[in-house]
Design goal:
Strand 7 and strand 8 form a beta hairpin. The protein has six helices and 25 strands. The strands form seven sheets. Strands 2, 11, 14, 15, 17, 20, 21, 23 and 25 form a nine-stranded antiparallel sheet that branches. The protein has a four-stranded antiparallel sheet with strand order 16-22-18-19, with no helix packed on it. The protein has a three-stranded antiparallel sheet with strand order 1-24-4, with no helix packed on it. With 409 residues, it is mainly β. Helix 2 packs antiparallel against helix 4. The protein folds into two domains: 166 residues, C8orf32 fold (Roll); 127 residues, Jelly Rolls, CATH 2.60.120.230.
């Protein structure tokens, strides 16, 4: 494990103690770097179930104390919102690292999986229109509703289980439920859910079925994280929806994949470059940048995208460079054409075919750099805190040598 501190150099806001805008990690070496990440001192590592349990629970805790600690972790680290992707509900690692928000079903499954990772007996409980978790300790099942952020104490102070609440609805009275949006019911709705006396216990995913945050940053690549005020995206029925941000829980990033220099020698000559990349985060957009040189100022370029045996013709925006009249830059935005975002982990497999057209045989037309930039979605709770003072960040990866340039601004 390669670990070292970095100087944050926080951006100073008048009247504020300082905050960062972006954190960039660039691989300046010749070999891939495994699992690069930046964390604040004392920040929880959410990339692994056992790491979460180790941070949230003390090994000497009793079972009831562990259950309560994990319940508090869910309340503090996951935002109540819509289901982020069609497969996210069954994948706690994805909820905690990729999206950072979920519906009640995601809350119930995630808490149950974490409790099992802590060595506790736990089960996912589906009620009519709602999901909760039950954890076994002190000889009985106890209900933990991390979505509505409540438990139901009995008169003797012990926490009730689902069956006990169904048989005594007065346990719901006087409890401060979190009915903030997008919750669609109130206390009477909760009462109706338990009054129906219907319960299902769906199977929980095994640890080998969970999402992996393993990621290699290849030579020349840069990954950049930032806090943003843009809307978030999630797929539903093959459509892309924009979800309005709630609070500060919006985070984004870009992965910059370097390209190569290509030169046109003949009329209509084409060059094919394949970008194949697997990332653990959801991809919510992307574009290709191509900067080049032409003399005299003639020549055209056509971009053909090939993905899953489908050819997509994407229009490009030609931007003239002001520093040199012979230089030019073309930006191709293929976000819509690729029907993004797919579920994470994403195998981004794209063939770019550039067809260059020269007006006269003696003219020169070349691309000095062709690169792809992917827009990523990441759970903001996994980013270091915005406010920083001095060297309060650390960088980690699984490489043996230091070849990463880390910067925060």
């Amino acid at each position: 494990m390669n670990t070292y501190e970095i100087q944050a150099s926080p951006f100073k806001i008048p009247g504020d103690i300082g905050s960062w805008r972006t954190i960039s990690i660039r691989n300046d070496g010749d070999t891939p770097v495994s699992r690069p990440d930046v964390q604040a001192f004392g920040q929880l590592d959410r990339s692994d179930l056992h790491a979460i349990v180790a941070e949230a629970c003390d090994p000497d805790m009793r079972d009831a104390e562990k259950a309560h600690a994990l319940f508090e972790f869910m309340k503090s680290n996951v935002v109540k919102w819509a289901l982020p992707s069609l497969d996210a509900e069954q994948n706690p690692i994805k909820i905690l690292n990729v999206h950072g928000y979920c519906n009640c079903g995601g809350f119930s499954i995630t808490l149950a999986v974490l409790a099992r990772a802590a060595g506790l007996k736990a089960r996912n409980v589906h009620l009519p229109g709602h999901g909760v978790t039950e954890i076994w300790h002190d000889g009985a099942w106890h209900l933990y509703d991390s979505n509505l952020q409540v438990t139901y104490p009995k008169p003797n102070g012990e926490l009730a289980g689902v069956e006990e609440v169904q048989n005594d609805l007065t346990l719901l009275d006087g409890i401060d439920h979190d009915f903030h949006a997008p919750c669609t019911f109130n206390l009477e709705g909760v009462r109706e859910i338990y009054a129906k006396h219907q319960v299902w216990h769906p199977d929980l995913p095994g640890e080998d079925e969970l999402h992996s945050m393993a990621f290699d940053l290849l030579p020349g690549e840069t990954i950049r994280w930032f806090r943003d005020e843009r809307a978030r995206f999630y797929p539903h029925q093959n459509e892309v929806f924009m979800v309005e941000p709630c609070g500060d829980y919006v985070a984004g990033g870009t992965l910059q994949i370097p390209g190569q220099t290509i030169r046109a020698q003949r009329e209509g000559e084409s060059f094919s470059q394949r970008f194949q990349r697997q990332v653990p985060w959801a991809i919510v957009g992307g574009r290709m940048y191509a900067s080049g040189f032409r003399t005299p100022q003639d020549g055209q370029v056509q971009l053909l995208l090939h993905r899953e045996e489908t050819e997509l013709n994407v229009g490009g925006i030609l931007t003239e460079r002001t520093d040199c009249e012979d230089s030019f830059e073309i930006i191709f935005d293929f976000t819509r054409a690729l029907t993004l975002p797919p579920p994470a982990p994403v195998l981004y497999d794209l063939d770019l075919e550039l067809v260059l057209f020269k007006v006269r045989p003696e003219s020169e037309l070349r691309f000095d750099n062709v690169r792809v930039e992917l827009d990523l979605q990441r759970a903001p709770q996994t980013l270091p805190p915005v406010d920083m003072e001095g060297t309060d960040l650390i960088y980690r990866d699984n490489s043996e040598t230091r070849q990463i340039m880390v910067s925060a601004e």
